[in-house]
Design goal:
By secondary structure, the chain is of the alpha/beta class. It contains nine helices and ten strands. The strands form two sheets. A six-stranded mixed beta sheet has the order 6-7-8-3-9-10, with helices on both faces. α5 runs parallel beside α6 and α7 crosses α9. The longest helix has 17 residues.
Length: 256
């Protein structure tokens, strides 16, 4: 039996502040399998983003352990790609130059990888904009460029921290659909943090609901929707969609 790509075992995280110790996460245990897309929802301040930072190795848990690809996480991982709310494209670099930035930072830039980046830019509708600057692109195109930059280092796992929240609603739907389909096509393992329940359901194989702070797992929903050629947009039209939405909404108790 194949080991989970990501494994969290009783992970907790406390922060220290002037008011004292704040317990952000409490006793999180979770397995994520290869190629699986998992969404995490929960009330504001429940530790969703903290959980991603722990998986990536950016911060250490106060208690518990994390394994990625069978190895305990100790420090920042090269096998993990991180995509944030803002695209963080450098305005003075072209789209092509932004897309290879991760390769440069990790000293991985070579002819083959640059060719791979060019192919990604072509495949995802940015081929004619490689030599443009970020200010010349729409918000959705910038997010696609940020995704290409994340995929350029060929990470095994993608962590997505509300990557569509800065976009207007119509663009957000379209880009979520595009990126969700891209990740499935690339067979990437992904963990998405979002405040949008519909987005979580439509993109994920499972939805993890966290409690109020300190965040722990309140429930796990395996998403099974009847729709042809599953994509985030088609999933929203599935007859089971509203039932998942209503159940998760009730579990959260508060607006997420």
């Amino acid at each position: 039996m194949e080991l989970p790509v990501v494994k969290l075992d009783r992970v907790s995280k406390n922060y220290h502040s002037l008011e004292g110790e704040i317990e952000a996460l409490a006793d999180i245990s979770l397995d994520v399998d290869r190629g699986e897309f998992v969404s995490i929802v929960g009330p504001s301040g429940c530790g969703k983003s903290t959980l991603l930072s722990i998986v990536s190795g950016l911060i250490e848990p106060t208690a518990g352990k994390v394994w990625v690809q069978g190895r305990e996480v100790k420090g920042n991982l090269q096998s993990v790609g991180y995509m944030l709310q803002k695209d963080h494209l450098f305005e003075w670099r072209t789209i092509r130059e932004n897309a290879v930035l991760g390769l440069e930072i990790r000293n991985m830039k070579n002819k083959e990888r640059v060719s791979y980046v060019n192919d990604l830019l072509d495949a995802y509708g940015l081929g004619d904009f490689m030599d443009c600057y970020p200010s010349q692109l729409s918000g959705g195109m910038r997010q696609r460029a940020a995704l290409v930059r994340t995929l350029a280092t060929e990470p095994e796992i993608l962590l997505l921290d509300e990557p569509f929240s800065a976009l207007d609603y119509q663009t957000r739907l379209a880009i979520a659909d595009e990126i969700g389909s891209i990740l499935k096509r690339e067979k990437k393992t992904a963990i998405l943090v979002t405040h949008d329940i519909a987005e979580a359901i439509s993109m994920a194989d499972r939805v993890i609901v966290l409690s109020k702070r300190p965040g722990n797992i309140k429930s796990i929903h395996s998403i099974e929707l009847t729709c042809d050629k599953r994509s985030p947009m088609r999933c929203r039209e599935a007859p089971e969609f509203s039932k998942y939405f209503n159940n998760i909404w009730k579990e959260l108790d508060v607006h997420v």
